[in-house]
């Protein structure tokens, strides 16, 4: 009996040694799919008034073609009116940070004086929550009033995001409206919202499926490491000739 138990324990140790590398690979894959680290104002590159950077897409949600289109429109606006608009997307904010607090801090980092801030507009989007914020300088307020500015952030930019995370359309619409208003044209207003009935999908997202599969593999392998030695032991007993024979 002691000999049989020793064999079972040896088999269990062998199985654990074989399974551990697979567990390590699966856990590493799960960790690699974790969300990116949060971004703070201190991680954003420096920028000053007159800089030719108009779009800072750290959330990676705007296509290169549309980024070029938006940058061209905002650059022409700056040349014609002296008013500078910049779009910033962030994938994840620091804990306790909001788009408004982040935007205000970044605005003051880039444009530390009232004179530097005067003709600046900063539109911020957090792509995790789709939260938005807009910060404006004093000289743009006669055209871009606080009411219009908030409407740009909360309606023009946010409406396409609520309709399937259409980031490119959102920033193109926001750019067109800001350029029109800051150029002295009539405000085109926010997009008209069409009520639609949405049926919640029953399919998991790709990230959820990956994590679920990894967890299932880990649990399955751990169960196998426990059950297989026990089953082997009982099978071994069952096939042994009776000592009374």
UniProtKB/TrEMBL annotation:
One Pfam match: TPM_phosphatase
Transmembrane annotation, as ranges: 214-239
Leader sequence residues: 1-38
Assigned keywords, A-Z: Membrane, Signal, Transmembrane, Transmembrane helix
Gene3D superfamilies given in the database record: 3.10.310.50
TPM domain boundaries: 55-180
Alphabetized NCBIfam families for the sequence: photo_II_Psb32
Record's protein name: YgcG family protein
Native source species: Nostoc parmelioides FACHB-3921
